[in-house]
Each structure stands twice: as structure tokens, then as C-alpha cells.
Amino acid sequence: MHKFLIIFFIFIFFQNSDAQTANRCFNLFVKSETGSVEYFAEFIDSLNQRSNQILFKNKMSEHVNSDLANLAFSDRMTASYRAFKIRRILKELKNSEHMDTYDFENLALKLERLTFLIDPTVMLLMNSSEQKIYKQAQHSILAKGLENFLFDINSQTTKSMKRKIFEIVMTPFKDVYLRWTYAVFNMPKLNGAVSPIELAMKIA
Fold first, then answer.
1. What is the dihedral of CA 193, 198, 200, 203, to 10 degrees?
2. Helices in the chain by DSSP H: which ranges?
3. Average pLDDT over residues 176-190
4. Cα separation, 39 vs 188, whole angstroms
5. Please, are residues 136 and 194 in contact by the beta-carbon 8 Å criterion?
6. CA distance readout (Å), 99 to 6, 96, 105, 146
7. Is 8 exposed, middle or buried (0-12, 13-18, 19+ CB in 10 A)?
8. What is the mean pLDDT of residues 35-57?
9. Which of 57, 29, 31, 26 lies closest to 150, judged by CA?
10. What pLDDT band is residue 133 in, cutting at 50, 70 and 90?
11. Residues near 149 by Cβ (< 8 Å), separated by ≥ 6?
12. Is residue 55 helix, strand or coil?
């Protein structure tokens, strides 16, 4: 029994290592100030590129910092409004140390509702089942990608050994497959990324 528990915790600890390595590589090339709206937008663009452009059709960073100089008045107003909506959502990530799995999933849903970022033509030839799988893959990649990225950043800050042990012990209870054990207490917050991110990336 003890050997099983040891193996289980080792598996939990390493299951996100590939994603965290990619996140650290992103930090080597990022241009914007860490923690800024532009910084988060660039990460989502990086995540989108790694997942075969499954998330959005255009770069989010270009919408956040649109060049308005040569645009007509109506186009300028549209671009400004879109930038405002993206910025308002991404600002929530500044408090990521206080966010849990459900917060990331809800934030991912807000981004997915920004229809001007999505390419609807991708799903024209898909049946309803394929569309559901595609949308779930999008949601899982975005929600889990943000969670893994920001968890990696926050874990780099100094923590007590007691805190580290507590987080390792509690990790299984944050997992999507075990959350139903206490779903009755969290039902209003559930917007599940039910696809494991590894499977979602394969779909992408």
C-alpha cells in the first residue's frame, strides 16, 4: 500500500513536467513585462501555436495592442472595444495565486465567448459529435494551459516545506476526475475541462 502511494505521488508530480518545460521556454523569449496583460496575451498566443492554432484564428496580442492610426472611425471603435474586453478578462490572471482549477475554467469560458477570436469555418464540415469533441479540446487546452503556466510561475516563489507537502497531498483532489466526489458543494462553479490536456493536444 505504501509503495502504491509513493508511486502515485511521483506520477502526480511529474505528469505536468512537459507543459512546465514549455512554459519556461516561453519565458526566455517573451517581450512583455511579466504579469502584464500583454504578457498573458503572448503566452496564450504561444499556447495556441503549440496546439496547431486550435484556440483562436488570430494572435490575441495583436488585438490587445491594435494599431489604430490608419483605421476608419468605425473600425477604430471596434478594435478599441475588442481590446477592452480582452484586457478586462486577462487582468483577472494577475491574481492567479488565489485561483483554483474552476477559476481557470471559468476564465477560459469568458475568452471562448469572444467570438471575434474564433474561426467558425473550422467546424462547418464537422458533425455535432465532432464539434463537441473539438470544443472540449479547445477548452481543456486553454483552461489547463493557463493553470499549468501560472502554477509553474507561482511555484517558483519561496514556499515553506509544510506548504509544499500540503500542495502535493491536495493535488489529487484538484484533479478533474476526482472533483465529482465533492461536486455537490461546488456545482454552481463546474465548467469542466474533462479532456486531459495530453489528449486534447493530440486532438489539436
1. -170
2. 2-14, 17-29, 37-50, 60-64, 73-90, 101-112, 128-155, 161-174, 183-186, 197-203
3. 50
4. 30
5. yes
6. 28, 5, 10, 11
7. exposed
8. 92
9. 26
10. confident
11. 19, 23, 26, 43, 47
12. coil
Question: What grid cell was written down for 11?
Answer: 506520477
Return the closest-CA partner of residue 146 out of 81, 82, 84, 99. Answer: 99
Q: What is the dihedral of CA 35, 36, 41, 43, to 10 degrees?
A: -30
DSSP structural state of residue 99: -
For the record, the C-alpha cell of 193 comes out as 475541462
| Residue reference for cell 469555418 | 121
Residues 80 and 66: their CA atoms lie apart, in Å, by 8
* Angstrom distance (rounded) from CA 146 to CA 7: 27
* 65-69, 106-110, 133-137: the lowest-pLDDT one: 65-69
Contact 30, 43 (CB under 8 A): yes
CA–CA dist 116, 57 (Å, integer): 9
What cell does 204 get?
Answer: 489539436
Question: Hunting for cell 472533483 — which residue is that?
Answer: 179
